[in-house]
Design goal:
500 residues; alpha+beta; ten-stranded mixed beta sheet; two-stranded antiparallel ribbon; 12 helices; globular; disordered N terminus
């Protein structure tokens, strides 16, 4: 059984919500230990060493040198190779630690773990990479993981990861995302508002809306600036024969002449983006090419949604002029589109990219050179659990900043700043979980004597013979086997024609 953490009262900072926040951190750590069904002690020690490491994680054996790691360096790879983590139970644990929001907004995106040199690693695929190239193309060989994180509207880069699933090279990204969304909906409490899911332009907006038709979710997808959509056709005139039209007037993003009067408009002002203008056109649909009946000769499905056009005055960095943002929104029947929530939700989607970058560069998510994808799955869950502990402890840790950095109040730390404070907070404020198999526990059973450690050989009390003043010590030559007797070859008989 996993023992709960205990905290010294003198180690708590002066924060009004510290006891409640610390209780949530205690419960999460105890739940994480319970999710590890095999090699639990080694896996939890590895997760603690990940959070207490100084600077970016360079390798797994380096984590074994941290004080939080109570095992040898070989147990790091052994825990990932032979350990077991109940993924479904850990997903429930992550969902239970979500911060309150109304409505819940989640971001979904795919990121790659490059494994170009691991030719013997199974289930690798070719995926896009923004900075690494292969044969002149921006692709790498590796594993792809699809993350789902809850977004917040505060001006920080914190997210709440709830799921990370590895994609098989033959898996469809849109279908897998729909499966993950439906599984997440089953874990959320009943009676909640309709959650939003935000996707980037790499996803098919119509396919996602078609797969999630029966789910009570709102889908928000960014669209390319060269897309074309269509209105519903007008009713045919009386007496006209033939097949009725399926597509009406064309709506081209690049041609303003095809834009009719917007069905909804929003004008607002933001501190970062200045004046924001949002136009929406409802009832548009694309020409669907990917659908379940593709190749059967049947009619293509009509997936209707709302197109939004977002124009801002400036971008926060102010390094380039802003571009027009096109969005697709589709939700359950009866749900009205909130234009202010729509454009703000997509701008917060970039926090997911900050989370993935922090996991790769600081927590060392893609640093280990693991061979099997199952080991990568276990390491991914430990990274997600470590990031969640940092998020839960950000109201408890202090600001451990460098002299040239700006001070930040407690509770407003970034993930990097919270990691430095967690290293000082953890050893003094929280006891480690008790081991399931402590090394000092008495052994019992018929094999206890065989597992008992052997006693060291007793050293001789005689001083060693010095060779500096005396005669050199003669060594006994090694015993060699006696030489084999010479083989006697039989006498050769003379040929018959030489016999007398």
């Amino acid at each position: 059984m996993a023992a709960p953490l205990s905290v010294l009262p003198s180690a708590l900072p002066a924060y009004p919500k510290a006891p409640a926040t610390l209780a949530r951190l205690q419960a999460f750590r105890a739940g994480l230990h319970a999710c590890c069904t095999r090699r639990a002690d080694a896996l939890v020690d590895l997760a603690d060493a990940l959070l207490s490491a100084q600077g970016p994680v360079a390798s797994l054996p380096q984590l074994s040198l941290e004080p939080a790691h109570r095992r040898g360096w070989g147990s790091t790879y052994a825990a990932l190779a032979c350990g077991r983590i109940d993924a479904e139970r850990l997903r429930d644990l992550l969902v239970g630690c979500l911060p309150h929001a109304d409505p819940l907004v989640f971001a979904v995106d795919v990121t790659t773990w490059p494994r170009c040199d691991a030719e013997c690693s199974p289930e690798r695929g070719l995926y896009y990479h923004p900075s690494r190239h292969s044969a002149g193309q921006p692709i790498v060989a590796g594993w792809a993981f699809q993350w789902i994180c809850q977004l917040g509207f505060a001006r920080d880069s914190w997210t709440a990861p709830v799921d990370a699933r590895r994609l098989h090279p033959l898996d469809d990204t849109d279908h897998t995302a729909a499966v993950q969304v439906r599984a997440l909906l089953a874990r959320l409490p009943a009676g909640r508002p309709v959650p939003w899911f935000v996707f980037d332009a790499g996803y098919d907006s119509a396919q996602l809306s078609l797969d999630l038709t029966e789910a009570s979710v709102a889908v928000l997808v960014r669209l390319r600036a060269d897309r074309c959509f269509y209105h519903d056709p007008p009713p045919p005139p009386l007496g006209k024969t033939g097949r009725p039209r399926r597509h009406g007037a064309k709506f081209a993003f690049a041609d303003p002449a095809t834009w009719p009067t917007p069905t909804a408009t929003l004008h607002t002002t933001d501190q970062q983006y200045g004046t924001v203008t949002v136009h929406a056109w409802a009832g548009l649909h694309p020409k669907q090419h990917r659908h379940p009946g593709h190749g059967s000769g049947g009619p293509r499905p009509i997936v209707r949604g709302t197109i939004g056009r977002v124009q801002v005055e400036r971008v926060p960095a102010r390094t380039r002029p802003p571009k027009v943002l096109w969005l697709w929104w589709a939700g359950p029947e009866g749900l009205q589109l909130d234009l202010d929530l729509a454009w703000r939700a997509y701008t917060r989607r970039l926090d997911l990219e900050h989370t993935v970058r922090f996991a790769k560069q600081t927590l060392g998510w893609t640093t280990p050179r693991l061979r099997h994808p199952a080991q990568a799955d276990r390491w991914t869950w430990l990274v997600l659990a470590g990031y969640t502990q940092l998020r839960l402890a950000r109201e408890l840790v202090g600001d451990q900043r460098l002299p040239w950095e700006r001070p930040r109040p407690t509770g407003k730390l970034s993930p990097t700043g919270c990691g430095g404070g967690f290293r000082d907070f953890w050893p003094h404020s929280a006891r480690r979980l008790l081991r399931r198999n402590p090394p000092v526990a008495p052994q019992a059973g018929p094999r206890a004597a065989a597992r008992a450690p052997r006693r060291a050989t007793r050293r001789s009390r005689k001083p060693p013979r010095s060779t500096a003043t005396g005669s050199p010590r003669l060594r006994r030559p090694p015993d060699r086997p006696p030489p084999a007797p010479p083989s006697r070859r039989p006498a050769q008989r003379p040929p018959r024609h030489l016999k007398g």
